[in-house]
Each structure stands twice: as structure tokens, then as C-alpha cells.
Amino acid sequence: MASGSTAARDQSQARALDVSGGPVRVAGTPFVHAGVTGTARERIPTVIIDEHGAMARAVAGRIATLIRERASAARPLVLGLATGSTPIGVYRELIRLHREDGVSFRHVITFNLDEYYPMRRDSIHSYHRFMWENLFSHVDIDPAHVHIPDGSLPRADVEAACAAYEARIAALGGIDFQLLGIGKTGHIGFNEPGSGEQSHTRLVHLDSITRRDAAADFFGEENVPREAITMGIATIMGAREIAILATGEHKAGIVRRAVEGEIDRAVAATFLQRHPNTTFYVDDSAAADLTRVATPWLLDEVHWGDALMLRAVTWLAAKCGKAILKLTQQDYADNHLTSLVARHGSPGAVNGLVFNMLGAKIRGKSKLPRGLRTICFSPHPDDDVISMGGILRKFVENGNDMTVAYMTSGNIAVFDHDVRRYLDFLVRLDAERIGGGSSVRALADTVHAFLDRKQPGEVDIAEVQDIKRIIRESEAVSGIEVMGLSKAHARFLNLPFYQTGKVRKDPIGPADVAIVAQLLREIQPDLIFVAGDLSDPHGTHRMCKEAIDRAVAEVYTGAQAAARPEIWLYRGAWQEWPVTEATVLVPLSQEELTLKIQAIFKHQSQKDSAPFPGQDEREFWQRVEQRNKTTARQLDQLGLAEYFAMEAYVIA
Q1: Nearest-CA neighbor of 162 among 102, 114, 91?
Q2: Cα(93)–Cα(37) distance, rounded to whole angstroms?
Q3: Mean of the pLDDT values across residues 35-60?
């Protein structure tokens, strides 16, 4: 079991969102529903636990409790399990509970939700391999008790195998506890839009959005299987208890649809509204669109703090299509905001307060820091110029001592054809100018031989990984040179957690933290920029932030606490801070935005068609241009000064 201090910390993490914008601590364990949802609009009990480790401990702790209860009754526990990045934390915590607290899996029987078809069991992409690598090989489960749909069967045998899968579940009395994730289409398992409530284990065709989401794992959408074997909705709904997990801003819309929307075959997760014992676990980002978080004044009386007032008035202005200073008493009355006007005496008073709060966030170059030692931590080799190219240039012009620390190599995001192109250049240069040494030719032969036989998604050999790393490092230097910096200002940390050669990474460990801590001790920065964009589909930004947070906590303790740097959070290629959340809004001229885009262009391996574009098929520079202009346009529509473009930051 978790220690008393850990349990208390986890309990304090489970929360609803207070109407003032701050957290409310929920009494009892995260599995106590009372006081958690707080709104009739939420048709599935929903727990917000922002710290991912606490979420994993909560769910794994519940599973451990069930294992012990069943063991004491001499009965097996039947678990339904999911794959993907979200449940990995739960599996790691279960492994820890097994090793440190003696939780035994000898009497646990598992059934996995799904498997791609066709798929060899030993494939790097198979869920069979995923489960053994991430859970089963680390605990004392009987291999005979592990059930995973077999993606290697001949097509003629699949239907019978699916029926046998269902029969085995039924013979055991059904699933006791089912763990789920949720896809962007609302699918659970591979029950895509249109799946029926009475569906059982079967072969299905995968939705195009699902295949696009999986493209990164397969190094290209063309390599993603078009079919999968999945448990059906009826099979899942037959579980006695269900926990469904979602993290990240990119899941916010579908979480709200699943929790608050009508039941609809187009969104399979909505069927869980009919289940008597389902709990949704989400972090703050995935909860952002829930009514109690986004617009709590529509539900009940609220306590009007400044943060909530700012959100409410900005929302009202957008809804009414008016500038803030033009909002009237009727606008407030029609939208459940009369209590806000009453608190301040008049609409004009409220309008003026919010207008001035937004205006105070705007900082041009003259209002930005000067002469500070500054580190920009960039998770990937292009996040610096993509996310904060504008302020990076302004900080250079203001005479700040800048270091750009690239935390990972980003090598998996380089196409093989780029490796061939650079090798061809090296061979030609060697032959024509250097003398045709054998070392370059030997390297080329080794790399070409590997690439010629390489299977989609196969981990690159060391030589290829190094070439891809060097390609990205050279591009990163070219990018910051546009900003007025040089190679001397770049640090390539190459954190160990990233060096798996695969999309899925190792957890952040002491070695990662030590590298970041050493840089902090060396530079002794006054200010650091950190990626706060948690929508990165593969979690690298979140993991890099964890390494920085742990390093900061380690370095700035005791007598060093006073030297702790100011932390500015930027967001990456996926999303921007809303103007209501941002602490600082930095205007960019047309020339400054053009310079930023030119820096992004230097990352040639990511241009035209990046290996991991996410759901947005536009190039990164196009996203940046639209995002920065949209932020400026929003302020203009609210009645503030008109700017060409704008970046947003949160001072933590």
C-alpha cells in the first residue's frame, strides 16, 4: 500500500475545480464520487487529478485493493486492460506495488481490449509485445492467465477466435475491473464511430482519424494496419467497474462530449453514461472544456475572483461579438452574470477592470528583461524557434545572456531519405575533395545496407540514429543563428530517457535530472523558459518539464532557494495559451514574425511533411503564423490595441 504521506498527497490531488479558479480538495479517496462531479451536466462521475503520477497511483491502488480482496476470498480477479501511453503510468505503479508492497498477480486473469490486424506477436507494434514489456514480464502473473487478441491468425480463423474470447470471459463471470483510454473520436478499445451497444469481440475497420493518430508509432500512416480485433461495447459494459483515463488538451473536446453529451453511436464512450460504476479520470488539460471548468457561472452561484472574472467577461465579449468596453447590463443579464455586475456596481466598472487587466499583460521589447542569464529549454530541436522565436529575438536584442538547451535529439523525426541524401553528399565530398577514404564509404555501406532491409517502425542502428541526431543539431544551430545567436549558445543535452529509438520513451530518471541540474548549476540562470505545452501527442514535452521541475527542486533548496530562477512557460507547436491564462503577451511586428518563420525554415527535415504532424496537417510555420496572428486578433476584437501578431507566456 502507499505510504501515509503518499496517500495524503494523492488524495489532495483528486479534485473538482472551484469556481474561483483554484482547486478544491476532495474528501476521501479519488474513488468516492460524492463531491467530485458537482454538476448534473456530467453524466459520468469525473475526477480531476492533474499530477499524472497521482492519477496512476489512484487507479493502480484501486486495482491492488481488488487483487487483495479477491485473494483473501480465494477468487481470481479478472482485469480488462488497455494499451497506449495513458495507462503506462498505471502499469509502472502496479509493478512498483508488486516489487515493494508484495501485491501478487498469481491469481489475476487479464483480457486485453484489442490488437491490430494483421499483426505478428513479436512485432514492435503489437499490443502483445507492449503488454509483456510494460507489465506482465515484471510481475508474477501466470502466462496462461494472459489473454490478448491474436492478430497473427489467418482471416478465416478470426471469427471463431473472437467467439472463444467472449466465451472465456463469460465462463469467468465477466470482467471485474476494466481500464480504458479514449481516442479522439471517442472510441474505446477500437470501437470506432458507428459501433453498436450490443457489439462483442470482432474484427473492425479502423477510422481514418485513429489511423492518423497511430501513424507516429508506425512511422507513417501508410504503415498502420487498416483493421483490428477489439472487444465490443457490450463486452466492456459488462464489466463490474470501469476506469477511463484521459490526459492532455487534445482530449478536452472529446472528454466533454463523452461526459456531458447525448449518448450517440458516433461516440462510443457516451455509452458509458449507462454504466452504473464508471469513473472518468482526467488531468486539468483534458478537463478544460467541462462546463464546471470552462463556464461554471452557467451552473450555479460562484465566488468571483479576478481570474474567474477575466475569463467570464472575455467569454461574454466573444459570445456577444462586442469589445469589452461595449458590454451592457443586458448582455450580463442574458448570460447569467448579473452577480458579477452587482459585486462591482455597474457594467462599466467590470468592463474597465477586465480591460485594464488584459492591457497590463502586453509587454513590448522595452518592457521585457535586460541583462539576465537565461536558459531556453527546448524539448525538441525546433521547439525554441517554433514556440518562442519572437521573444527569443527580443531577449537577444535586449542584451540577455542566452543559452538554448535542446533536451532531446529529436532523431526519430528524421526521414530515412534525409539520411540517404546527407550520406550521398558525404560520399561525393569525400571522393572529390578529401581523397576517398575508406571510413566514409564503410559508413555509407553500413547505413545503406540497414536502410535497404529496414522494416516500418524498426529501431534504427546506432549509426543511423547518430546521423539523424547530427542533422537535427545542425538545423537547430542554423535556426538560432537567424535569431542572432551562434553555435556557442546551443547545448545539446541528449537526455537518456529519449534514447530508445522508438516513439515511446523511458520514464524520466535520475540521469536525466542530473544533466539538467548540472546545467542549472553551471549557468546559474536568472530566468528559464520551459515548454508548458502538454498537448504534445507523445509526451516528450511533459517528460522534459518533469526533468526540469525535479532538477529545479534539487538545485534550489536550502540556502540556494533565493537564487531560484523565474520560470516562464511557453507552448509548443500544438496550442497557444489563451489570453485569459497568459501572464505576458508579447507583440510581434510583421518583420519579427517573418524572421521567426525564417528560423523555422532552417529545420529542413521537418519542413513540407514532418514525420509527426499530429492531426493538423499544416506545416509548423503555418500553424505558428495562424496561432500568433489569432492571439493578436482576439485582443483586437476585445477592444485592445491592434497588433500584427503575438506570443503568449505564463510566469509560473
Answers
A1: 114
A2: 26
A3: 82
Task: Catalogue the E-assigned strands of 119-237.
Answer: 146-147, 177-180, 202-205, 227-230
**pLDDT for 639:** 97
Residue 119 identity: M
E strands within 446-526?
A: 490-492
Active site residues: 192
CB 455 within 8 A of CB 472: no
Per-residue three-class SS string for 84-132: CCCCHHHHHHHHHHHHHHCCCCCCEEEEECEEEECCCCCCCCCHHHHHH
DSSP structure string for 264-317: BTTBGGGGGGG-TTEEEEE-TTTTTTSHHHH-GGGTS-----HHHHHHHHHHHH
Task: Report the pLDDT averaged over residues 455-465.
Answer: 89
Query: What DSSP designation does 188 have?
Result: B
Closest CA to 495 of 475, 480, 517: 517
3-state secondary structure of 422: helix
| Cα–Cα distance, 462 to 583 (Å, whole number) | 43
| Angle between helices 620-637 and 590-601 in degrees, nearest 10 | 160
- Residues counted in the chain: 652
Residue 482 has pLDDT above 60, yes or no: yes
DSSP state for residue 28 in the 8-state scheme = S
Give the residue among 336, 348, 339, 328 at the shortest CA–CA distance from 305.
Answer: 339
How many whole angstroms separate alpha carbon 214 and alpha carbon 149? 19
Shortest CA distance to 363 belongs to which of 564, 596, 568, 638?
A: 568
> Which sign, positive or negative, has the C-alpha torsion 482, 484, 486, 488?
negative
Sheet of 401-406: strand order equals: 490-492, 401-406, 373-378, 527-531, 566-570, 645-651, 584-588
Q: Mind listing the pLDDT tens digit for each residue in 111-156?
A: 999 999 999 999 988 999 999 999 999 999 999 999 999 999 999 9
* 15 pLDDT above the threshold of 90: no
Dihedral of CA 546/547/552/553: which sign?
positive
Closest to 175 (Cα-Cα) out of 228, 232, 126: 232
CA distance 525 to 177: 48
The per-residue pLDDT for 37 is 41
- Rounded mean pLDDT of the chain? 90
Identify the band that residue 12 occupies on the pLDDT scale cut at 50, 70 and 90: very low
Site of grid cell 518583420:
591
Tens of pLDDT along 264-313?
999 999 999 999 999 999 999 899 999 999 999 999 999 999 999 999 99
* Spatial distance between the Cα atoms of 136 and 399, rounded to a whole number of angstroms: 54
8 A C-beta contact, residue 522 and residue 493? no
Question: Rounded to whole angstroms, what are the CA distances from 278 to 55, 138, 186?
Answer: 15, 28, 15
Confidence of residue 24 (pLDDT cuts 50, 70, 90): very low
Grid coordinates given for 58 = 489512484
Residues 6+ apart with CB under 8 A from 554: 513, 517
Locus of grid cell 462586442: 322
Q: Which of 322, 312, 300, 298 is nearest to 350 (CA)?
A: 312
Cis bond upstream, residue 23 (ω within 30): no
